[in-house]
Amino acid sequence: MVYIPTIAFGTGSKWKWHDVTTYVQLALESGFSHLDTAAFYETEPFVGRAINESGLSRKDLFLTTKCGLMIPLRNSLKDSLEKLGVEYVDLFLIYNHFFVPDIKEAWKEMEKLKEEGLTRSIGVSNYEVKHLRDTLKVAKVKPAVNQISLNPYNYAEMRPIIDYCQENGIVVEAPITTYPGGPVDIPITAAALRLGITPTQVIFLWVRAKGAVIVTTTSSKERMKEYLAVNDLPPTSLTHEEIAAIDHAGANGPPPGPVHLVPVVAVVVVVPPLPPLADFVVVVFVVVPVPFQRRRCGFGRRKITISNDTDNDNANNKNNTNAPSSSPTKLILVGVIIILLLSITFILGIVLVLMGLLC
Ligand SMILES: NC(=O)c1ccc[n+]([C@@H]2O[C@H](COP(=O)([O-])OP(=O)(O)OC[C@H]3O[C@@H](n4cnc5c(N)ncnc54)[C@H](OP(=O)(O)O)[C@@H]3O)[C@@H](O)[C@H]2O)c1
C-alpha cells in the first residue's frame, strides 16, 4: 500500500526547461512533500538538487516522475533516477499514450519496473477510457493513478474517465492550478465569502470533494501557504448545494475570452506599372479571430490511500473528478509564431523577386 499526499507541487507547464531549484526549495520549506516532475519537463536535475539541499529524509517525500517521449520506459526511469539523485521514485507515470508505441506492452514493462523496486507505484497520465481498458486487459497491477486535468468547465466532459477510474480504484490526479474565469466565479465567490476563504481555496475544496489529488504550482511563497492551508479545512467544507452550483455553472462552458487576431494569410499586392523608386508593396494580412482563454486557480493537502494491487479497491477515492486539457493558449501562440514566420518569409521572397525583376 502506498500513500500519496493529495497535493503535489508541480514542476512542469510554465516551469518546463527552467531552473526550478528555488521554487522547489520554497515548496519543501512551506510544507509540500509531494513533488511532480517528468523527463519531458527537464526539471528533474533541479528537483534533485532541491531535495538534496533540503536535508529532508527521502522517506518523507513523495516523488512522481513521468516517462519521456518514445524513450524505452526502463531507460527513461533510470535516467530520471540518476537526474533526481534517488534510488527510487514513489510514482512513475506513462505521461501520455502517445509516448509509448504499444499500450499493453508498455504496461507490462511498467509492472517489471515496479517489481524491481525502481518505483513504488505505477500509473498513467492523459489516458482515456479506451486506453485504460486496454491496459487493464493485461494488468496484473492496476494503474494507481491517472493524471488528467480537471476544472469545473471540463468536469461534465470528463465524467466517463473519472467514473471509470473510480470504478477501478484508480486515483485521479488533477493539474488544476488555473481555470478560466466566467460562470463558475459566481458560486465560487459565494462559497469563499461564506467560508471566509479565497476563491482559489474554494476551487481546491471542489477538487478535493471530487476525490482528486491536486497537482499545482506557483513561484509565490504566499500562494504556497494559501494552497496548503486547504489541508486545515474540513473536507466537507463545501455544501452539496455549493458543489452542485459549481458543477452547474461549469457545465455552461467557459467564457469565450478575449479575441486575438491571428494573421493566417499574407497577400502581397504589387501596384504596377511604377518606376523603380516608386515601387511599393502592399501587404494585406487576412486575419481570423481566435478565442484566447486565460486560466487561473489553487490547492490543499490530505492523504488518500492508493493501491497497486489488482485485488484491492481504492476505498478512499470516491467522487473523483478530472479532465484532460491541452493548453489552447500555447497552441495558439505557437500557431501565431509559425504563421508570422511564414508570412515574413513569403513577403521577403516576393520583395526579392520583384527587386530582381526591376533591377
Ligand atoms: N500530466 C500532464 O499532462 C500535466 C499537464 C499540465 C500540468 N501538469 C502538472 O501540473 C502542474 C501544474 O500545472 P498547471 O498547468 O496547472 O500550472 P502552470 O500553468 O504551470 O502554472 C500555474 C500558474 O498559475 C499562476 N497562479 C496561481 N494562482 C493564481 C491566481 N490566483 N491568479 C492568477 N495566477 C495564478 C501561478 O503564477 P505565480 O507563479 O505567479 O503564482 C502559475 O504561474 C505542472 O507543474 C505539472 O507538474 C501535468
From TrEMBL:
The chain crosses the membrane at residues 264-292, 331-358. This is NADP-dependent oxidoreductase domain-containing protein. Belongs to the aldo/keto reductase family. It comes from Tetrapyrgos nigripes. GO terms for molecular function: oxidoreductase activity, acting on NAD(P)H as acceptor; oxidoreductase activity, acting on the CH-OH group of donors, NAD or NADP as acceptor. It comes from the Eukaryota. PROSITE patterns: ALDOKETO_REDUCTASE_2. Pfam families: Aldo_ket_red.
